[in-house]
Amino acid sequence: MSDAIVKDQCKFSTYGYACGKPVEHGRYLCEEHAAAKCSSCGKPATHGCGFCGQFVCGAPLCDECTYGTDESKSSGAWGFMNHIHVSKPEFADKHANVRLKSQVATLREALDECEAYFDNRADADCDQDGYIPNEEMKLLTLVRDALRKAGAK
Protein backbone atom coordinates (compact mmCIF):
# COMPACT_ATOMS: atom_id res chain seq x y z
CA MET A 1 0.00 0.00 0.00
CA SER A 2 1.27 3.44 -0.89
CA ASP A 3 2.05 6.04 1.77
CA ALA A 4 0.91 8.81 -0.58
CA ILE A 5 -2.41 10.33 0.44
CA VAL A 6 -4.50 11.99 -2.25
CA LYS A 7 -5.51 15.39 -0.88
CA ASP A 8 -8.62 17.28 -1.93
CA GLN A 9 -7.53 19.83 -4.50
CA CYS A 10 -9.14 22.78 -6.27
CA LYS A 11 -10.61 21.69 -9.60
CA PHE A 12 -10.82 25.21 -11.11
CA SER A 13 -8.94 24.95 -14.36
CA THR A 14 -7.74 27.28 -17.07
CA TYR A 15 -6.48 26.03 -20.40
CA GLY A 16 -6.50 22.47 -19.08
CA TYR A 17 -4.49 23.13 -15.94
CA ALA A 18 -6.23 22.73 -12.57
CA CYS A 19 -5.43 25.12 -9.73
CA GLY A 20 -4.53 22.26 -7.39
CA LYS A 21 -4.57 24.28 -4.14
CA PRO A 22 -5.73 22.26 -1.14
CA VAL A 23 -9.45 22.49 -0.30
CA GLU A 24 -11.61 21.35 2.59
CA HIS A 25 -12.90 17.83 2.26
CA GLY A 26 -16.06 17.80 0.16
CA ARG A 27 -15.32 21.07 -1.63
CA TYR A 28 -13.99 21.33 -5.15
CA LEU A 29 -12.82 24.98 -5.21
CA CYS A 30 -10.24 26.81 -3.09
CA GLU A 31 -11.23 30.03 -1.30
CA GLU A 32 -9.95 32.23 -4.13
CA HIS A 33 -11.88 30.39 -6.84
CA ALA A 34 -15.01 29.88 -4.72
CA ALA A 35 -15.29 33.69 -4.59
CA ALA A 36 -14.66 34.18 -8.33
CA LYS A 37 -17.57 35.53 -10.40
CA CYS A 38 -18.12 34.94 -14.11
CA SER A 39 -16.80 37.88 -16.11
CA SER A 40 -19.78 37.60 -18.47
CA CYS A 41 -22.87 37.07 -16.30
CA GLY A 42 -21.70 37.43 -12.69
CA LYS A 43 -22.64 33.91 -11.55
CA PRO A 44 -20.12 31.83 -9.59
CA ALA A 45 -17.23 30.89 -11.88
CA THR A 46 -16.29 27.26 -12.50
CA HIS A 47 -13.27 27.62 -14.78
CA GLY A 48 -10.99 30.13 -16.47
CA CYS A 49 -11.36 31.30 -20.05
CA GLY A 50 -9.22 29.07 -22.24
CA PHE A 51 -8.82 31.57 -25.09
CA CYS A 52 -5.21 31.74 -26.13
CA GLY A 53 -4.07 34.79 -28.05
CA GLN A 54 -0.53 35.76 -27.28
CA PHE A 55 -1.34 34.74 -23.70
CA VAL A 56 -4.07 32.61 -22.08
CA CYS A 57 -6.97 34.86 -21.07
CA GLY A 58 -7.86 33.03 -17.83
CA ALA A 59 -10.80 35.32 -16.92
CA PRO A 60 -13.29 33.48 -14.69
CA LEU A 61 -16.33 31.98 -16.47
CA CYS A 62 -19.31 29.85 -15.43
CA ASP A 63 -20.48 26.76 -17.31
CA GLU A 64 -23.13 28.86 -19.10
CA CYS A 65 -20.64 31.31 -20.63
CA THR A 66 -17.81 31.14 -23.13
CA TYR A 67 -15.53 33.40 -25.14
CA GLY A 68 -15.94 34.73 -28.64
CA THR A 69 -14.88 37.37 -31.10
CA ASP A 70 -16.71 40.62 -31.76
CA GLU A 71 -15.14 42.44 -34.68
CA SER A 72 -17.42 45.46 -34.14
CA LYS A 73 -15.56 46.27 -30.90
CA SER A 74 -12.13 47.75 -30.55
CA SER A 75 -9.33 45.22 -30.70
CA GLY A 76 -8.49 45.54 -27.01
CA ALA A 77 -5.21 44.47 -25.47
CA TRP A 78 -2.52 43.17 -27.73
CA GLY A 79 -2.85 39.40 -28.03
CA PHE A 80 -6.62 39.48 -27.36
CA MET A 81 -7.93 40.93 -30.62
CA ASN A 82 -11.72 41.48 -30.34
CA HIS A 83 -11.88 38.92 -27.51
CA ILE A 84 -15.13 38.96 -25.50
CA HIS A 85 -16.91 36.83 -22.90
CA VAL A 86 -20.53 35.98 -23.71
CA SER A 87 -23.36 33.68 -22.71
CA LYS A 88 -23.57 30.45 -24.63
CA PRO A 89 -26.48 30.73 -27.12
CA GLU A 90 -28.75 28.42 -25.12
CA PHE A 91 -28.34 30.67 -22.02
CA ALA A 92 -28.36 34.13 -23.67
CA ASP A 93 -32.04 34.90 -22.97
CA LYS A 94 -31.75 33.66 -19.37
CA HIS A 95 -28.74 35.88 -18.69
CA ALA A 96 -30.34 38.88 -20.39
CA ASN A 97 -33.41 38.46 -18.16
CA VAL A 98 -31.27 38.23 -15.02
CA ARG A 99 -29.37 41.40 -15.98
CA LEU A 100 -32.62 43.19 -16.78
CA LYS A 101 -34.20 42.17 -13.45
CA SER A 102 -31.12 43.41 -11.63
CA GLN A 103 -31.27 46.74 -13.43
CA VAL A 104 -35.01 47.07 -12.68
CA ALA A 105 -34.36 46.37 -9.00
CA THR A 106 -31.67 49.07 -8.95
CA LEU A 107 -34.03 51.56 -10.60
CA ARG A 108 -36.82 50.73 -8.15
CA GLU A 109 -34.49 51.35 -5.22
CA ALA A 110 -33.53 54.72 -6.70
CA LEU A 111 -37.19 55.63 -7.26
CA ASP A 112 -38.04 54.60 -3.69
CA GLU A 113 -35.34 56.98 -2.44
CA CYS A 114 -36.65 59.73 -4.71
CA GLU A 115 -40.16 59.15 -3.42
CA ALA A 116 -39.04 59.52 0.20
CA TYR A 117 -37.04 62.66 -0.64
CA PHE A 118 -39.86 64.36 -2.57
CA ASP A 119 -42.54 63.24 -0.09
CA ASN A 120 -40.84 65.27 2.65
CA ARG A 121 -40.64 68.36 0.42
CA ALA A 122 -43.87 68.22 -1.61
CA ASP A 123 -46.24 71.10 -1.02
CA ALA A 124 -48.90 73.12 -2.80
CA ASP A 125 -50.15 76.67 -2.60
CA CYS A 126 -53.77 77.57 -3.04
CA ASP A 127 -55.20 80.56 -4.88
CA GLN A 128 -58.50 81.43 -6.55
CA ASP A 129 -57.81 78.84 -9.31
CA GLY A 130 -57.07 75.97 -6.93
CA TYR A 131 -53.94 74.16 -5.80
CA ILE A 132 -50.59 74.91 -7.40
CA PRO A 133 -48.03 72.16 -6.71
CA ASN A 134 -44.41 73.00 -6.09
CA GLU A 135 -41.70 71.32 -8.19
CA GLU A 136 -41.19 68.54 -5.61
CA MET A 137 -44.89 67.63 -5.69
CA LYS A 138 -44.82 67.47 -9.50
CA LEU A 139 -41.79 65.17 -9.37
CA LEU A 140 -43.32 63.07 -6.58
CA THR A 141 -46.35 62.45 -8.80
CA LEU A 142 -44.08 61.30 -11.66
CA VAL A 143 -42.08 59.01 -9.36
CA ARG A 144 -45.20 57.42 -7.88
CA ASP A 145 -46.68 56.89 -11.35
CA ALA A 146 -43.45 55.17 -12.45
CA LEU A 147 -43.44 52.95 -9.36
CA ARG A 148 -47.09 52.03 -9.88
CA LYS A 149 -46.45 51.14 -13.56
CA ALA A 150 -43.44 49.05 -12.52
CA GLY A 151 -45.66 47.11 -10.13
CA ALA A 152 -43.79 48.30 -7.05
CA LYS A 153 -46.77 50.01 -5.41
Can you tell me about this structure?
The structure is a single chain. This protein is 31% helix and 17% strand. By secondary structure, it is of the alpha+beta class. It has 2 domains: 8-87, no CATH class; 94-149, no CATH class. The strands form 4 sheets. Strands 1-2 form a two-stranded antiparallel sheet. Strands 3-4 form a two-stranded antiparallel ribbon. The chain starts with 12 loop residues before the first strand and ends with a helix.
Characteristic key phrases:
disordered N terminus, two-stranded antiparallel ribbon, 3 helices, elongated, alpha+beta, 153 residues, 2 domains
N→C terminal distance: 69 Å
The total domain count is 2
What are the segments in which pLDDT stays under 50 over at least 5 consecutive residues? 1-6
Largest sheet: 2 strands, antiparallel
Shape estimate: elongated
Rounded Rg = 26 Å
SS element count, helices:
3
List the helices and strands in order. EEHEEEEHEEH
Strand order of the largest sheet: 1-2
Give the fraction of residues assigned to helices: 25-40%
Binned strand content: 15-25%
